[in-house]
Design brief:
- The protein has 232 residues and is an alpha/beta fold.
- The protein has a single domain, classed as Rossmann fold, CATH 3.40.50.150.
- 31% of the residues lie in helices and 21% in strands.
- It has six helices and seven strands; from the N terminus they run ααβαβαββαβαββ.
- It starts with 7 loop residues before the first helix and ends in a 15-residue tail after the last strand.
Length: 232
């Protein structure tokens, strides 16, 4: 079930997932992820930028999960023993999937929201995760999907104080599928530089899938290690 008021581009992306989910248990396969293990690898890449030693039950990481689905990121964090270290908000535009998420995780916050239309206040979160939001375009054109990506990233960027993480399909594959969103790494970096105004970008292309993850930071990742005395 989808909200009546929904932008046409996201409707075309969400409708196939909503149809596939109907009547199914909330598993990764039910929301069109190929398999569960790959999703674990994706989440590993997504939270790669977090220094978890900085967070605790008394100082929680404020995390926004865009396109949260049934709340699988929470399952991942629980598996890692980090669930008590986060203040979590999940947003999606599929009402049935959101109901499932809220039933599975009643103590956490879920909202039906298009962040482009209703952005969060500046600095509302430390980290935003967009897992699978930009990997499948279904019937959208490349240009339409690129516009959706830019608008979503710009709306998200102002709401975080630390970083955002998102994945797209790679161009370094054996073949490309017409329904997937394949984007050259250089184009993704150039887009981030021009639209978000930062060069602080990590590109992760090493977790065994035909995609890559961009982790975009507000500030440069500067080491705390002192310069060896022999260098001076």
């Amino acid at each position: 079930m989808l909200p009546n008021e929904m932008a046409d581009d996201v409707r075309k992306v969400i409708e196939p997932i909503a149809e596939h989910f109907k009547g199914k248990r909330p598993t990764p396969e039910a929301v069109l992820w190929p398999n569960a293990k790959d999703l674990v690898n994706r989440f590993d890449a997504m939270v790669n930028s977090v220094n978890w030693r900085d967070y605790s039950p008394d100082r929680r990481l404020r995390i926004l999960d865009i396109g949260c689905g049934p709340g699988f990121l929470l399952d991942y964090l629980q598996q890692r023993g980090l669930i008590e270290h986060v203040d979590y908000t999940g947003i999606d535009l599929n009402l049935e999937i959101l109901e499932s998420a809220q039933e599975r995780w009643p103590q956490h916050k879920f909202e039906c929201r298009d962040i482009r239309q209703t952005p969060y206040p500046e600095g509302a979160f430390e980290l935003a995760v967009l897992c699978g939001v930009f990997t499948v375009k279904f019937t959208l054109s490349q240009a339409q999907m690129l516009r959706l990506m830019v608008e979503t990233l710009k709306a998200t960027w102002r709401s975080v104080t630390e970083s955002i993480a998102f994945n797209v399909m790679s161009k370094h594959v054996d073949w490309e599928r017409e329904d997937l969103f394949h984007l050259p790494c250089d184009e993704a970096i150039a887009l981030i530089r021009s639209e978000l105004g930062t060069r602080q970008i990590s590109v992760l292309h090493d977790y065994g899938l035909y995609e890559y993850t961009c982790v975009v930071r507000k500030r440069a990742r500067i080491t705390s290690i002192e310069v060896p005395k022999s260098w001076t």
